[in-house]
Amino acid sequence: MEPIQASALQSLLATQPVAALATLHKGEPAVSMVPCAWLPQGRGVVIHVSRLATHTADMLAHAGVGLMVTGTLDMADSPLALPRLSVQGEAQPCPSDSTDYAEARALYLARFPDSEAMFGFADFSLFIVRLRMVRFVGGFGRAHSLTAEQFAALMGGPTPAPATAALRPSAAPPESSPNSAWPNPAS
After folding, report:
1. Within the chain, what is the greatest distance between any pair of CA atoms?
2. How many Å apart are CA 67 and CA 81, to the nearest integer?
3. Is-contact 36 46, C-beta < 8 A?
4. Is residue 176 exposed (0-12), middle (13-18) or buried (19+ Cβ within 10 Å)?
5. Which of 12, 96, 125, 150 is the most exposed place for a label (fewest CB within 10 A)?
6. Residue 174, φ and ψ in degrees, nearest 5
7. Which pairing describes strands 143-147 and 84-93: parallel, antiparallel, or unpaired?
8. Which of 24, 87, 20, 90 lies closest to 58, judged by CA?
9. What pLDDT sits at residue 163?
């Protein structure tokens, strides 16, 4: 992945606070929206969900989930060129006695300070989505599949401030950038 694409990926995750969450609900795909925070070094995604929500029951019954973070329409010349990140992972409860809990809670509250009261609600709990595969599309013809390890290595540095040039790819495909196929992590 070229440095400008890596910067665009990091900026997308820094600026977009919500993700579409795909779960398996009674054997059928279901999609909802969740606010999310990212653990350092690409170790996973923190979500804070209610037991009353069907997606929470879905994650407890079947841990395999998908997440998608998409840029806003002003980030590209065409909807087809919007930057986006798709994740395949395993959703794991993060109870308050877990070694990851304090960090996950602090990161979530740093991103969503208004949600602090919900940590006192008995039906809300943290989950961490541990990544298996990541697919970043940085614009038309700029797709990259990454293993969890490759993503972690890419996210190991500090997250940059939003970079408008990196986030606003052209709708035209680059002449020399091959498009890799999902979910081939070799690209």
Report:
1. 54
2. 19
3. yes
4. exposed
5. 96
6. -70, 150
7. unpaired
8. 24
9. 32
Sole residue written with tokens 């029951």? 57
Q: What are phi and psi of 54, to 5 degrees?
A: -65, -30
pTM of the model: 0.81
> Which letter does DSSP use for residue 37 in this model?
E
Q: Residue ranges of the alpha helices (H) in 16-168?
A: 54-61, 101-111, 148-154, 164-167
Summarize the chain as % helix, strand, coil (round to 5): 30, 30, 35
Q: Give me the DSSP letters along 40-63.
A: GGG--EEEEEETTSHHHHHHHH--
Between CA 122 and CA 30 the distance in angstroms is: 25
Structure tokens at 140: 């038309």
> Among positive and negative, which fits the CA dihedral 43, 44, 45, 51?
negative
Distance between CA 177 and CA 143 in Å, rounded? 9
d(CA 3, CA 129): 26
Q: Confidence band (pLDDT; 50, 70, 90) for 117?
A: very high
Instruction: Please give the average per-residue pLDDT across 152-162, as a whole number.
Output: 60
Q: In sequence order, which residues have a C-beta less than 8 Å from that of residue 160 and are 6 or more positions away? A: 7, 10, 11, 14
Cis? peptide before 183, omega within 30° of 0: yes
Alpha carbon distance 180, 40 (integer Å): 26
